[in-house]
Specification:
- The chain is built from 2 helices and 8 strands; from the N terminus they run E-H-E-E-E-E-H-E-E-E.
- The protein is α/β, with parallel strands linked by helices and about 130 residues long.
- It has one domain: Roll (2,3-Dihydroxybiphenyl 1,2-Dioxygenase, domain 1), CATH 3.10.180.
- The chain has a 4-stranded mixed sheet, with helices on one face. Strands 5-8-7-6 form a 4-stranded mixed sheet, covered by helices on one side.
- Keywords: Dioxygenase, Oxidoreductase.
């Protein structure tokens, strides 16, 4: 068996159509923190991870994915609070839940998940273990 080379995910990139709408969704809906870095670049921070936000119609940051496009991501995020509280919060803030809660399998075992879409149509799965 090969030894593990990777320890954890540091960041990923979402290509978006409208940075303000994306920031609002992830900050107001999911409690992430907006971060500006490197001369005005945008990111969403949570825990020890972040999501860098690249606007599709702006000059690309190189290197980049071969075909970056808004709405092409599928993310699973683990909630820090019980899923019923997440569901209630999302409904209070006016975010529609597409599916859930439903049982799924996460990286380390069974999870329960809610599914919703961000402003670009990316599928966002919010889950809890146990």
């Amino acid at each position: 068996m090969t030894a593990a080379v990777i320890d954890r995910l540091d960041h990923l990139v979402l290509t978006v159509a409208d940075a303000a709408r994306t920031i609002d969704f992830y900050v107001r809906g999911l409690g992430m923190r907006e971060e500006r870095f490197g001369g005005g670049r945008l990111a969403l921070s949570f825990g020890r991870q972040k999501i860098n936000v690249h606007v599709a119609k702006e000059a690309p940051i190189l290197p980049r994915a071969a075909q970056p496009a808004p709405g092409s991501a599928d993310l699973c995020l683990i909630a820090a609070i019980p899923l019923p509280e997440v569901e209630a919060h999302l409904k209070r803030e006016g975010f529609a839940i597409e599916l859930g809660p439903v049982p799924r399998t996460g990286a380390t075992g069974p999870i329960t998940s809610l599914y919703l879409r961000d402003p670009d149509g990316n599928l966002v799965e919010v889950s809890t273990y146990g």
